[in-house]
Amino acid sequence: MKHLWLLDPAITFLNHGSFGATPRAILARQDELRAQMEREPVRFMVRELELLLDAARREVADFAGADPAGLVFVPNATAGINAVLRSLDLDKHDELLVTNHEYNATRNTIEYVAALAGAKVVTATLPFPIPSSDIVIERIVEKVTDRTRLLVIDHITSQTALILPIRRIADEMKARGIDVLVDGAHAPGMIPLDLRELDVAYYTANLHKWVCAPKGAGFLYASRNRRLGLHPIAVSHGANSTRSDRSRYHLEFDWTGTFDPSAWLASAEAIRYMGSLVDGGWPALMERNRRLALQARDLLAAALHVEHSAPDEMIGSMAALPLPDGDAVTAPSLYGDPLQDSLLFEDQIEVPLVPFPHPPKRILRISAQLYNEIGDYERLAAALTKRL
Questions:
Q1: Is the whole-model pTM more than 0.70?
Q2: Which of 46, 112, 122, 135 has its CA 20 to 30 A from that of 295?
Q3: How many angstroms separate the CA atoms of 80 and 248, rounded?
């Protein structure tokens, strides 16, 4: 199916997880929306946009198992994380709980807001490789205190590609009266979502990754009793609107200044389109990608003579495996490893090598999307065997 995307046919692309990739048909729909906007910008922004946003919101909410009243669009999960954390009224007695697998941008935001308030950041250390999801629960619960204000937790970790037991975590936190903010950047389109059933205080996610919507499409969901006092990262006209026909929550988030809403509006078409590509729709698509990721993981583990890093139930459309140590000086951050450059420029394979938990330690993370096939990972295994 690679012809359905604009991806370079010369590159074996195994990094859908970083920025996604949008099919040609969805980009065409985005172009139509942009043309509609530019034909009469005032009419579009003032008279048409709200109705279009509401229609897209309903489809995204239905896909995520959410109440549309609690869902707002954001450019990406990082914006959703910032909106929640920077809306909290923290003080020096509060603690924010996070794991050592949390995405760097999210961790930076946590550190920033905690420093402003004098609050404390507490880290629960999860092992990698990890033998069981039970360890996640144990490590998080043992770090909870009577000062824990909020747990910020990945649904699917970015660096290590682990599906965390969010429902069990949420239940443990609820029993202790602690709110949960889920960073679900990778979840929509990789695993089934039912936010009503999950019942956390906040959930934010990307649609440009596994849903394959255009870049700039994400959402934030807040439970009914957490929407008041929740503000976008850019405060605009909605903050003092006197309108009574829409919630203050939607008035603030739906308009934060002049912007291009086409990615948000095209997200509904992406949900429909991607679900149409496989018999059985989204459930079959997600299971197909998961099976390919597991098959690729097994192939690479055998080629590299390494053990599996996680049980199968913690794996979705991505998988991660440890590699021999790299050069701590030349690989200080993501995309800085010379081996990654060699794989791309000499072998024409795009795949991330992640410095985790810190250089010189590193892991290989693979992704599986509809345009991938097992031969892609066989090429990667051959290249790695040659270079390691």
A1: yes
A2: 135
A3: 17
